[in-house]
Amino acid sequence: MLAGPFRLSLVRRLTAKSLLAHGASAETAGTAQLVLSELVGNAIRACGDDVPLVVEVYVGDTGTVVSVHDPAPDLLPRFAESAMDSADAESGRGLPLLNLLCTDVRVTASPIGKQIRCLLGPA
Q1: pTM of the predicted protein model
Q2: Are 54 and 101 a contacting pair, CB within 8 Å?
């Protein structure tokens, strides 16, 4: 997909529909939509509008997986601990949010740049 607000809305709807069709709970589908939004939003902030992304969402043996590949292997997510303590911070809460919602978050190299893979646990 090319990142953008309309496309994100479409991918969020497809995510929920696909996960529900494959046996995921409504709660898991909603959490997957939130995680997907965070990952795509981060990719847009890091790489710019209309960046080409690869989005994967599926139910695997160990749980629901949401991953986003972007073309910026050197722009890695950073944990900004001070943002969690500040009511005025405008960014920096994404990774802590992912850590709360997911049982595992991994950043790896991918053929197009990097992949951020989030495991949501059982469907």
Answers
A1: 0.83
A2: no
Distance from C-alpha of 16 to C-alpha of 37, rounded to nearest angstrom: 12
pLDDT tens string for the chain (123 positions)? 888 777 888 999 999 999 999 999 999 999 999 999 999 988 888 888 888 999 999 998 899 999 999 998 887 665 555 545 555 545 555 778 888 899 999 999 988 899 999 999 876
Which amino acid is located at 61 in the chain? D
E strand or H helix at 12, and its extent? Answer: helix 5-21
Q: Is 122 exposed, middle or buried (0-12, 13-18, 19+ CB in 10 A)?
A: exposed
Q: How many residues belong to the chain?
A: 123
81, two tokens: 């601990």
